[in-house]
Structures are given as C-alpha cells and as structure tokens.
Design a protein that fits this description.
The protein is mainly α and 230 residues long. It contains 12 helices and 2 strands, in the order ααααααααβααβαα. Bound molecules: calcium ion (CA) (3 copies). Keywords: Calcium.
Length: 230
C-alpha cells in the first residue's frame, strides 16, 4: 500500500520540483542576462571554446569522484547530502529532495556525472561563486570560469533570458553569424530535437548542459563500456 502510494506521488513531486526549479533558474538567468555583458557574439566563438569546456568538465569529474564516496559512478542520496552540507547551501529537506529530483534527469540511480554537472552549475547560478570555493578552494577559479561560459553560451541562444531556448531563436542564432552558408533547416531541427530531452518544444539550461557535455565528447570518453581508443 505504502509502495503504491509512493509510486503515485513521486511523479507529482517530480513535476513540482521541475516547476519550482525551472522558475528559480529562469529568474536567475533573467537577472544575469540584464546585468551582464554578453560573452558570446557568435556560434563560432562558442565552438572554439569546446576544448576549454572539455578541460573544465574533467575538473568537475574530479569533484564528482570525490563526492562519489563508494566510487560506484553515481551519487546517491546520502552522498548528495554530504555534498550539499559541504557547500553550506541553505535549504530545507524538501528543497534538497527537489534538487535531487530535478538533476536526476534520467530518473534512475541517483546522480551520474552529467547530472552532477547540472547540479553544480545550478548551485553556482543560484548561490554564487562561494559554492565552488567550498567545493574546491584550489579549483574554484577554473570551475567558475567553466560555469560562466556554459551559462553564457545558453544565454546566447536564449536571447530574452527567460530560461528557455526556442527553436526559432536557435535557428536564427545559428544562421545570423554564418556569412558563408546557412545551416540547413533539417539540421537545426535535428539538433534542437536532440537537446529537447523531454520533448516539450523548449530547451532549458539542464537540457543544454547535457548537450554541451555530449558535444565536448566527455560523456562517451568516460563511459568505460564503449572505449574505442586503440
Ligand atoms: Ca556513490
Ligand atoms: Ca540519474
Ligand atoms: Ca525541453
């Protein structure tokens, strides 16, 4: 009976977490879009930063490994509590659970590495650079740099900073800076579909971060099951 009840309640809690956090993230992004100069003026300038992204993601991987205390490739609820405690982020039990639900994008097995990138980036966006200093005094500069760039890359496509990228904006952005050739419509459509994990016609920050991790090639590199290097 209890198990059945929790199966019914969980999707509701998840929807609530999605809504709450999407709103918080949107508010933070809007503020940032209004208060900060744009970092990226072209798609090219973002593409050129991919190697730096990749390097930064490796640093985040080290942080992930640190908090994955039993090294099973996933941060479970207890490990997440330890991590949030370390960050000194003020939040209630319910808020911590919501963060967990929001970042567990595939709804399975706690927080894996790409989900952890989302988690830290959200903490950085919502609570500021103190968070990364607490994660790692030594690496915080590097981490801040990566998160700033990732968030600004998102804002390049989300022009009004309402926390959602729309297909027409992405298409426009992909074409406005390319003098030589237009990106064919079917390619931008496919790209957008790839990013829009929940298929709701919009891409939010966490979906975008997932795509960036994929494009930087770190996801496959760290997935030991399909190592293809000679
Ligand atoms: Ca673990
Ligand atoms: Ca997961
Ligand atoms: Ca979406």
């Amino acid at each position: 009976m209890g198990a059945v009840a929790s199966i019914c309640v969980e999707p509701m809690k998840r929807r609530r977490a999605e809504k709450n956090l999407d709103e918080k993230v949107s508010a933070a992004l809007r503020e940032r879009a209004q208060s900060k100069k744009r970092t990226f003026r072209s798609l090219n300038s973002i593409t050129m930063r991919l190697p730096r992204f990749k390097e930064g993601l490796r640093d985040i991987k080290d942080v992930f490994d640190h908090y994955d205390e039993n090294s099973n490739g996933t941060i479970d609820n207890d490990e997440l509590r330890n991590c949030l405690n370390k960050l000194h982020v003020q939040m209630s039990e319910t808020e911590a659970d919501d963060i967990h639900r929001y970042c567990d994008v595939d709804h399975r097995n706690g927080i894996q590495f790409p989900e952890f990138v989302v988690l830290l980036c959200l903490m950085y966006l919502l609570f500021g650079p103190d968070v990364t200093r607490r994660v790692s005094e030594f690496e915080s500069e590097k981490l801040n740099y990566v998160f700033d760039e990732l968030i600004d890359a998102f804002l390049f496509f989300d022009k009004d900073g309402d926390g959602k990228m729309r297909r027409k904006h992405v298409t426009r952005r992909m074409n406005e800076t390319s003098h030589q050739e237009r990106t064919p419509g079917h390619i931008t459509a496919r790209l957008f579909k790839e990013m829009d994990l929940d298929r709701n016609g919009k891409v939010n920050l966490k979906e975008f971060l997932f795509a960036m991790i994929r494009w930087a090639g770190l996801e496959t590199e760290d997935d030991g099951s399909d190592e293809t290097s000679p």
